[in-house]
């Protein structure tokens, strides 16, 4: 059954928005009314999904970047009436929100009930927090950093989920590379090893990537971030966010420069945990691919990386720079 989706402000939203949320959250899930209705409704866009006979069956709200945190769009209060579940309405509504929010936001976030996590993973959202209680229900935060790519590949069952998606994601542009790289980094829990000629400012000197690496280093005690490059000159000449982060977290993030006398590959790559891989065909281009569940590739590249790492040395120039 097809679903038509209509958008409203809170002031002009039909009664169905309140009625569906009350039936699902307050009556069915026992969420206290004082927690269900908040000031965020006033600044959010509200969406109602209706069936061909004009029956409202699903709702959600979207907080755009202007009203929320800079660069973020927040999806919330998604609800489908019990008798209309199992018809694909929730996914249709979520994909609609992703398409709208992706036009202005560099990442989409939501708070998911634990039982709903597999549903959101089927649309490319990955977990990015520990479990917490919200209205007596266990929740986890989830985010999507590559909505455009995911919407173009809706045939994949768990798109971009580390350890679950074994399909190949081709990369043609710098934007595609950055979004898929950040999606990979954002899911790493044990190790993140990156090899490139240099940490170019255009590609790596980004606040979102810095924040993802910082979260990995701070929230996982045994995580290991290794950055292996051929040329540290650009890092010395101009301030770089990853260098500043590395100097604040020296026990978790380490950078080395390869031994010039040791053979080095001409293709940069990144490894996340034991299964995620990103690969470019050359230093000067974004063209390449990502795979989020490729343990064989990850193992071979990790062995190559380890050989290079053991013969590499810390950057003397960076060590001598003032804090």
Automatic annotation (TrEMBL):
<dbReference type="Pfam" id="PF13673">
    <property type="entry name" value="Acetyltransf_10"/>
</dbReference>
<dbReference type="InterPro" id="IPR016181">
    <property type="entry name" value="Acyl_CoA_acyltransferase"/>
</dbReference>
<dbReference type="Pfam" id="PF25559">
    <property type="entry name" value="DUF7931"/>
</dbReference>
<dbReference type="GO" id="GO:0004343">
    <property type="term" value="F:glucosamine 6-phosphate N-acetyltransferase activity"/>
</dbReference>
<protein>
    <submittedName>
        <fullName>Putative GNAT family N-acyltransferase</fullName>
    </submittedName>
</protein>
<dbReference type="InterPro" id="IPR000182">
    <property type="entry name" value="GNAT_dom"/>
</dbReference>
<dbReference type="InterPro" id="IPR039143">
    <property type="entry name" value="GNPNAT1-like"/>
</dbReference>
<keyword id="KW-0012">Acyltransferase</keyword>
<feature type="domain" description="N-acetyltransferase">
    <location>
        <begin position="3"/>
        <end position="147"/>
    </location>
</feature>
<keyword id="KW-0808">Transferase</keyword>
<dbReference type="InterPro" id="IPR057691">
    <property type="entry name" value="DUF7931"/>
</dbReference>
């Amino acid at each position: 059954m097809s679903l038509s989706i209509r958008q409203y402000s809170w002031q002009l939203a039909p009664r169905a928005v309140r009625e569906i949320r009350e039936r699902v959250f307050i009556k069915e899930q026992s969420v206290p009314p004082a927690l269900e209705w908040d000031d965020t409704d006033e600044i959010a866009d509200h969406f109602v999904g209706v069936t061909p006979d004009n029956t409202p069956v699903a709702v959600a709200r979207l907080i755009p970047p202007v009203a929320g945190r800079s660069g973020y769009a927040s999806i919330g209060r998604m609800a489908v009436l019990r008798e209309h579940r199992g018809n694909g309405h929730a996914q249709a509504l979520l994909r609609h929100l992703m398409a709208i929010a992706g036009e202005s936001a560099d990442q989409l976030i939501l708070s998911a009930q634990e039982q709903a996590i597999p549903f959101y993973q089927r649309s490319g959202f990955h977990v990015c927090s520990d479990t917490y209680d919200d209205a007596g229900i266990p929740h986890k935060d989830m985010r999507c950093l590559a909505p455009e790519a995911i919407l173009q590949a809706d045939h994949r069952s768990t798109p971009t989920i580390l350890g679950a998606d074994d399909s190949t994601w081709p990369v043609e542009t710098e934007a595609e590379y950055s979004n898929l790289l950040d999606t990979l980094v954002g899911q790493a829990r044990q190790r993140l090893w990156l090899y490139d000629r240099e940490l170019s400012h255009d590609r790596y000197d980004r606040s979102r990537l810095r924040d993802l690496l910082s979260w990995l280093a701070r929230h996982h005690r045994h995580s290991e971030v290794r950055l292996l490059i051929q040329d540290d000159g650009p890092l010395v000449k101009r301030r770089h966010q990853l260098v500043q982060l590395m100097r604040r977290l020296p026990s978790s993030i380490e950078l080395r420069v390869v031994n010039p006398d040791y053979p080095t590959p001409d293709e940069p790559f990144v490894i996340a945990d034991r299964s995620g891989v990103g690969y470019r065909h050359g230093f000067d281009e974004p063209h390449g691919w990502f795979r989020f569940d490729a343990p064989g590739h990850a193992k071979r590249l990790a062995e190559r990386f380890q050989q290079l790492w053991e013969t590499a040395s810390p950057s003397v120039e960076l060590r001598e720079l003032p804090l």
